Amino acid sequence: MRLPILFSSAVLLGVALAAPAPDPTSDALAEFQQLIAEAQTAQDDLLTSTAASSKRANTCTKNKLLTRKPWGSLSKQDRKAYTNAVLCLQRLPARTPQSVAPGARSRFDDFLATHILQTLNIHYTGNFLAWHRWFTWTYEQALRNECGYTGAQPYWNWALYANDPASSPIFDGSDSSMSGNGEYIPGKGPITLLLGDFAPVVLPAGSGGGCVTTGPFKNYTVNLGPISMPLNDGSVVGGGPGTGLTYNPRCMKRDISAAINKAFANAVDVVKLLTQNTIADFQLIMQGVPGSGNIGVHGGGHYTIGGDPAGDVFTSPGDPVFYLHHGMIDLTWWVWQMLDFKTRRNQISGTQTFLNQPASPNVGLDDVIDLGYAGGGPITMRELMSVNDGPFCYTYSL
Ligand SMILES: *[C@@H]1O[C@H](CO)[C@@H](O)[C@H](O)[C@H]1NC(C)=O
Ligand SMILES: [Cu+2]
To answer: CATH number for the domain including 287?
Structure first.
């Protein structure tokens, strides 16, 4: 607030300001950090008061919270412990029957198959945030309970590396990264995103495009999909809904794009999202107003990764970095809820179908979410609305 006043009085005095224009994203980054601190304080207060009033043994308390941290704040050893656990999930046998997803080869694929099967009922719907909260948590539990991981699910703070994601600790290709960019393929055209009957969104190609050849996942094979994969000639490949579950082994490709990260998932975008007043607006800003050309921070993160499978809405959890992206999506919902928890805890907006096509009822607190063979069991929306309640007891730090 102080800067504009100083600036206008300087103009009144006729003083020529020689200093370069301030970078709005650095102010926004500080504001984002402040909002996280406010959310933490609100959560602490809430837990202190519920602990005092509850006699239940399983009540979530401050000292039971598991803290999810940004990738770059983990030690290199902890990052490797995480990627080793993911590699373990990729080695464990699938539980999904061949009759459901004949191409599923691993526990990691169980999660991917579940996402593929439910895509049209979990995006641009009223359960989008809760479904992905439950999905990410169930994955975190599988890493911990089936693969000996003792940490929390890390997240990708898009705002920190918006100018150069490929060099960030997440994508730098080192042993302690989530693997690097795809091999550079020159001369690629843009990709075109189609969303219902809305005007298509054309996004520039990134700085990779080929197979990922560095870091922990360089030998990882994507087994399922594609279903709706934008290519760099403007076309979209894949068989569409109801397909992509047969065995289709191929390398993982990435096409990391600083331009997309800068345009849709920078600190200003994050703060704008967190300062919305209703869940309807929060979701709209997060996913971008359809037809506006803005894909929001959700699309911004996905298409910053790009490639195959992460450019494919159905198959995107086939790239393990999906779960770091959705950790950050969940972080933004957590902050937004904590800033006015009483009012926002149970807010839901949207129907049961993708952009309400075909038309369907609104999602409510009694709706059941079931991740099938990924695990977790059926659970109601009501139990997914707070990270301090139901199955959850976690928080986020910087
Ligand atoms: C990839 O596979 C090769 C050949 O089996 C192996 O030598 C190498 O250690 C593997 N790399 C990673 C990062 O898993
Ligand atoms: Cu999803």
So the answer is: 1.10.1280.10
